[in-house]
Write a structure and sequence with these properties.
By secondary structure, this protein is mainly alpha-helical. It has helices spanning 3-36, 42-46, 59-90, 95-108, 112-126, 133-157, 161-169, 174-203, 206-211, 231-240, 247-278, and strands at residues 49-50, 55-56. It has a single domain (40-278), classed as MetI-like fold (Orthogonal Bundle). The longest helix has 34 residues, at 3-36.
């Protein structure tokens, strides 16, 4: 087979693989939009559930999801980036650091229900935070830390070593080099890890099931020690626990959750593109 024929064959195989991968995703998103769009309205987005959640809206669940995502970010992002900086810039290449990296990779693959049980035992029962936004945010933060640490470390390591050498040769300290040279250049990759971690936190059900989520709570939380509704758990409840639930409310809730996650992706893409254009390599 000639080189041109091989190239055309491989191009066709890759094209078919791409179409096979993308088509189901488009069909799923399109079906959710088609089924859920009629339910989405101002009333649906701005009011609480009524009549045993068979009517009304999902506003408390939206607010609860936003609070949990924000709480997760406040806890996990600084810790994750700090750990990535230490592992990539300060820690030596020895057995201890290799074991730490291996542990981080393994933690990223642990099922979310295990994190939920851990959060229940540590934060809800042992530390006596109760089923609260604080306990749920801490549990979700622990779950997202491995993703943030791994991607941030890879992004920092990808910055050329020459940048560090030039900065130090001009009189910059190691921390000044990291803060003013390395981190700005690694920011697109760091943002990718942060958004991936927060997206996972926003869409998880098992961890919040044990630590924070309420079955039916039409009022908004007043402090970090209150329970709250959340979109993933609310979707699970109305799909499995409420008989006679109108199907358009289920798909409307799924559409709002999907839009929330996709919006984070879109924002991350624009921010990442902006900083990549400013990158100097």
């Amino acid at each position: 087979m000639s080189r041109q024929a091989t190239q055309r064959l491989m191009f066709a195989v890759i094209t078919v693989a791409a179409i096979t991968t993308v088509t189901p995703i488009i069909l799923v998103v399109g079906y959710i939009f088609w089924q859920g769009a009629p339910a989405v309205s101002i009333d649906f987005l701005s009011t609480g559930p009524r009549e045993g959640m068979r009517a009304g809206g999902i506003f408390p669940a939206i607010v609860g999801t936003l609070l949990l995502t924000l709480g997760t970010g406040v806890i996990a992002v600084p810790l994750g980036i700090a750990a990535a900086i230490y592992l990539s810039e300060y820690a030596g290449d020895n057995r201890a650091t290799r074991l730490i990296r291996l542990a981080i990779i393994n933690l990223a693959g642990i099922p979310s229900v295990v994190y939920g049980l851990f959060g229940l035992g540590l934060f809800v029962l042992f530390l006596r935070f109760g089923t609260s936004i604080l306990a749920g945010s801490l549990t979700l933060a622990i779950m997202t830390l491995p993703v943030i640490i791994s991607t941030a470390e890879e992004a920092i390591r990808a910055v050329p070593q020459s940048f560090r050498v030039v900065s130090v040769s001009l009189g910059g300290t190691k921390w000044q080099t990291i803060r003013r040279v390395v981190l700005p250049q690694a920011l697109p990759g760091i943002l990718t890890g942060v958004i991936l971690g927060l997206e996972r936190a926003a869409g998880e059900t098992a961890p919040i099931l044990f630590t924070v989520a309420a079955f039916f709570l039409p009022r908004l939380p007043h402090s970090v020690f209150d329970q709250t509704m959340a979109l993933p758990y609310h979707l699970f409840v109305i799909s499995t626990q409420v008989p006679g639930m109108p199907i358009h409310i289920q798909y409307g809730t799924a559409l709002v959750l999907l839009t929330f996650v996709l919006s984070m992706n879109v924002i991350a893409t624009f921010v990442r593109s902006y900083y990549r254009r400013r990158r100097q390599w």
